[in-house]
Each structure stands twice: as C-alpha cells, then as structure tokens.
User: Fold these one by one.
Assistant:
Number 1:
Amino acid sequence: MTLSNPIERAPVAAAASGHRLALELVETLKLAAPMALTQIGQIAMTTTDLVLIGRISDEAVAAAGLAGIIYFVSFTLGIGLMAAVAPLAAQAFGAGNPALVRRALRTGLWVALFISLPIIAFPLRGEPILRALGQASTTSHLAQDYLFGLAWGVMPALWFQAIRGFMGAVNRPQPILWITLAAIPANALLAYLLIYGAFGLPRLELFGAGLATTAVNFGTFLAGLWFVTQRKPFRDYDVLARFWRIDRSLMRQIIVIGAPISIAFLLEYGLFSSAGLLMGLINTTALAAHQIALQITVILFMVPFGIGMAATIRVGHAVGRNDAAGIKRAGYVAILLGATLSAILTLAVILTRVATVRLFLGEATANVDETVGLAATLLAVGATLFVTDGIQGTAVGALRGLNDTRVPLLFAAISYWLIGFSAAYVLAFSTPFGAIGVWIGLSIGTVVHATLLVLRFRWLANRLART
C-alpha cells in the first residue's frame, strides 16, 4: 500500500527518525565506552605513580607536581595536533577513501616526530625554568630528575595518540583500551622496580618513575603499531606504505586544525591552575579543598571526554558522506548523551560527597573536618559546572568533526578568562563567598562556554543542511 496522504506518512517518518536516533545513540556508545575507559586507565597509571612517589617523601610529591606542570604545558602542544588526526581520518572513512585514511595517520606520525624535538627540549630545561619561577632549588632539582626520565617518552606517546585517532576513525577503538589496561599493571611493576631498586636494580627514585613512564610509552606505541600493521581491519589500510613520503598539504591541515586545540587545552588548564592560586591566597584549607574537588572533577570529565571523541568521529563520518542530517543527528545525540550521563554522575557525587572527599584525606591531616566540609560544599556548588563541562566536552568534539577549532578557541578565551576568571576573582575577594566564590566563577565561565559551543554547532549544522 502506498502512503500518499501526509497524515498517513507522518507516523512512518517519525518511526524512521526514531530508529535513526536510536541507531546513532548505539553507535556513539560503542565508540565512547572504550574511549572513556581508556582515559580512566591513563588516570589510573598517573595515580599509581603518585602513590609510589609519595612513599619516597613529601618533597618528592611536590617535585612530581612541579614536573607535571612543565611536562603537561609542553606535551599539550603535541596532543592538540594529534587530535586533528581523528576528524581527518573519520571524514576520509565516511567518504570511502581508504588512501586518505592512511595518509591522515602517516602524516600524523610525521608531525609527531617533528614536534617532539622542541617538546623534549622544554622538560630537559625544567630546573632553570622552575627556579626562574621562584621555586625552591631542592624541589626544582628533584623535579628535573623526574623530567630527565620522562622527556624521552614524548615521541612514542604522541605516536600512540595518532594511532588512537586512526583506530577510532575506522570504528575500532577497542585495541587501544586493551593496550591501556595491560599497561596499568606493567607501569606499576616497572615503576616500583625502578623507584625503589627492587630485585637488585639500582634505586632511581624520581628518575626511575619517569624512566618507567617512558618505557611504558614505547611499549604501548609498539603494541599499537603491531595492531595497525598485523591485525584486520587495520592492516588493510597498509599504513606504512611509502612511509617516507611527507604529505605537506595534509600536514598543514593537521597544524591548522590542531594548533587551536592545543591552545584551548592550555587556556582551560590555565584557568583551573589559576583558580588554585586564588585559593592559595585565601588559605591553605581552601587550596586543599579545591585540589580534592578538582581531582574528582577531572575523573568525572573522562566520561564526557570519551563521548566528545566519539562525537568527533561520528560527525566526521557524516561529513565524509555529505550527510547533513547525519551531522546534526550525531552532534545532538552526543551532546544530549554527555549532558545526561554528567547529570547522573553529578547526582551520585553530590549524594556521596562527604565520604568521597574523606577518601583523599587521612585522619592525621590538619583541619581535616574543615577541609572535608569545604570540599563537600565546593562539589555541591560545582554541580552546574560538572553538567555544563560535560556539555562543552561533547559539543567541542562535535565541532572538531567539522574541522571547526579556531572559533571554539575564541570562545574558550572569552568564557574561561574574560568571564570565568574575572567572576572567580571578584566573587572570592569582593564578596563574602571566598573560596566558594571561586567555584561559582568557574561555573559561570563553563556555562557560557557550553552555551556558545552548542549554538555554534547548531549554526554550522543548519548552514550545512541549507547548502
């Protein structure tokens, strides 16, 4: 029977639309779940390192924190560039162009090689940088020991990120998760052996911790390379074919797309680091409570971060096949999924916030009850921040699928610094809110950022649908 009446066709169209939305949700979850778990696995490795370093001395923990700042600031430049591999490969995959998928990974590997050299030089000069910033000479020297071991793992870590983007783009992110899960106990064992000098090995302490991370980075890269060259469907792309050929036009694309991502990462990282400085100006209890609440926030963010990576790929696939409706569907499903899961996790944290905070503190900690109370309050105040952070994490991922990274960078500068930091400073020191005012300011900045990103995606998706 032919449905010629629009009233008769409407239920059929609605059912078809509902089916496509359900299918999009399933495909997004299939990509997002292993990606989010991979992020959590990486946090597990850094947490293990901190636990082992903490048994050396309090000074070693402080030095590791300083070394982490130096390493992160330099490494973020490479991470942003490698993030550009996923949308380019996904668009090529959606267009049914395996040669371009291969070129995206191959060019990403070359970019990682070139950018690694200046990145490595920065942590190798960590001690004079830290001393110039006013840090104690002893702590700076210990931080340099850690960086001497850590710096050499930059190149394999970036290569692994490029492979991760390629695997996600071809709808196979699971091997990266398997490699990461295997790396967690391997990293713990190797770090323990090299830090404490067990089983006859030399006791290398912080240098050993950095060296263990470098060794694990090489191991994960080699495992990823084995998958892409030996296992289907990855080996069908023959990613190492004519590897010596440098694709300059695609390299420029990676830089144009990836550089704004790197700067946006630094703006966000700088905002929360600066918020810590504001807390330090208030008092030590405020700083401790902020660090605990911030660590919980980072863990929560791994879920929408994984969904955002999936959004990049799903939107990129739709771009590659010139599917305007698919672009809107992929972006909106990811944003709604990120908001929903963030809200559920936020509710769980709020209900258990006191017990959660106590996991980070020993009873011997000074002012433990005051710190617990303030951190729990910050988590309650940050409920809006958690949800909107989830929305912005997925929305920015959807925009990357459209190769749109420069305007989101402008949004980050306006939202985080012009609005968020200014509000945090004023509320902390010109009102009675104090430490709570800092988190209100962070929440305001994140709300503005999320709103701008969603409106930007809506505008771009509608424009593509019209053209």
Number 2:
Amino acid sequence: MKQRIKELGLPHMRVNNAGCLDRCELGPCMVIYPEGTWYACKTKEDVDEVIASHLQGGERVARLALPERPDKPEQ
C-alpha cells in the first residue's frame, strides 16, 4: 500500500506498519484516520480498491469494512 500511494503521488497520506491494532481476531486489518474507518484487506486487489474508492474517491468500501469497535468512545 505504501508503494502504491507513492506511485499515485497522493498528497498528505502516510502508510505505516502498526503491528497489532487490537483486532487480531479479525485477521489483517487497517484503519484510516482521521475518520477511523476499519477495513479487512486480504489481497492486493482489496488494498487497491480501498485506495481508489476511499482515499481517492471518498467512498467507503462496504464489503471490506469492519464493524465499529464496541469499546469506541462516543464522539
């Protein structure tokens, strides 16, 4: 994902490895800040879809979205 973001020249985006995000039981996952949208991406194509739809297009990818954390504080 980091390489693809660089290739596309997307500004103001940072991709980093965070290790366990305390949702390990759901498999590989990512969270996009500042909105806090969680995704389970299992393939390169899943990652590409999140980049194109969410990061470039501003639309959530419903099929990859994880449910909100039950312990998430109220905003």
Number 3:
Amino acid sequence: MRTQLRTRIAAVATFAAAAALLGPATAAGGPWGADYFPNVPLTTQDGKVVRFYDDLLKGKAVAINLIYTHCSASCPLETAKLAQLQKIMGDRVGKDIFFYSISIDPKNDTPEVMKAYMAKYHIGPGWLFLTGKEEDIKLVSNKLGLASLTDAANRDGHMPSLMIGDEPSGQWMRNSAVDNPRFLAKQIGNFLRWKDQEPAPSYANLREPPKVDGGEYLFRSRCATCHTVGKGDGIGPDLVNVTKRRDHHWVSRYITEPDKMLEERDPVAVELFAKYKNVRMPNLSLGPGDVAILLSHIEKQSRVVPEQAQKASVSAR
C-alpha cells in the first residue's frame, strides 16, 4: 500500500507545485493561499480533525515534512533531527512557527500510533503529527511540492525534505530535513526575518573552518542525534566501547543493515529495539568504507573517555 501511495504521489506532481518552490508571492495572501492549497480534513495525534488550510496554514509560518512511523530508512533520522531543531528553537515552536509531520501511511498510522511515536522522540508542543485519507494526503503532498518524480526511485519512497513556508507572505523554501539542526534554525530565522535573530557573520570575517576528519563528520551528521560516546544514553544507546562490548562484525552489520537484522529477529537487535522504546535504527545507506571509518572514530573517542573522566575527577577534588 505504501509503495502504491508513494508512487501515485510522485506521479501526480504538477508544474504548479514546482512553481511554488521557485518564486515568492508578489503580494501577501497570494498566489499560494486559499485558492492554491486544499482545505482537506486531517486528523492530529490527539484525534482532532483540522482543516489543512484554515487551521494549519492560514496566517502561520510552518515547517512540514512527510514520514511514516514504521519507516526503517530516513524517517527516524528526520524525526530525531527535527526534535533537536525544536529544542534549539524553544518556545518559538507553536508560537512563531508550527511543525507538521504528515503520514504517508494513513492506514497504519492511526492517531494512537502517531502519539506513541512522538513520545519516543520526546516531542513537545507546537508540533502536530497528521493523518487522513490517502487521496487527501496525496493532494497536500503534491501542492506542497513534497512529492517529486525522483521519489519513486528512492528506496524509502520519499526524500527527507522539509518545506518551510510563511503563508501570509506567500514565500516557501525547501531544505533537507536531516540537515544540521543549528544550521536549519539559523536558515529558518533568516528566512522568516525574525528580529532577534543573530546576524550571520560577514564573509570578510570568515576564518579557515576547523578541520573535521571523516569519522567525526559521519558521527556528527548520522549518529550524534541519537547517540553519544561516553555521555550516556540518548534516543539510542551510548556507543562507548561498543566494539569491545559486542562482536565487531555484528556492529558493522548492524550499522549497515539494521532493518534486515530486525526482520531476521536477531536477538540483540530485538533486545535493543525493545529497550529503546521501539525506535528503529535507520538504515543510513553507508558502505563498508564509511562504516569502517565511523567505527574507527567511535573507538578513538572511547579511548578518550576514561582520560576525560579522570581529569574531571581531579578537578572536582
């Protein structure tokens, strides 16, 4: 069902949706307003029926993405990244900007399922998870420009995109939903022209960026949202000394194919899934080379942890 729905969403993407991505409205209230966006009913995680345009878009700044709760690819990472973004933005979420995640699997993503999913990621107020009729979600996805012809070829059926919009001005932009949350927060603040937004640094004052090795980059961009090395559990387990605590080959395969190992009922994968509130480890599409670099970084950081703990103990005396 999900594959058919995603294929239909991709196939019906129109020129109008593409145009909405390319140019802002020339005047407030048009052309990307009530005459463009459908006012179809959707249902929130609390079971409340809302109208897409009247209740969710009209007069608001919004950030919208597509997910489904049983996704084993990009959705868990998207949700975890956006949960970080919500924390960074604080009480602006629900006041100056509203987050919406729309399910592309409405038959399985009931309000109860979505509410449980939100709890796993510690999602706060100002962010709604929405479901509805397949044809209505297809229409909304198309009009938002969140559906594209490339989605059909994507392993997960949709790209991890985030549409950010300011309905009163008619301006919209697309970002990656798995981008660095601090970068996204800065982009959104600049896009919405928040007055207390810190100005971006002048190009004249830019210095050489700090050097980041490949392993550190992979960990920051793919793992740090859910894991730490030596700082305790997050959404997922602390990875300190993970290659000593578990078989190295098992860890490599679990990073590469967590979805397959869960389907195969690997006992450790099943145990981790249950222990961490049924949050799925996403398949990050990492090759053997990337996995080796990532594990080397985790091992290196694990060796640093005892040194940091010893220094902290000495300084506390």
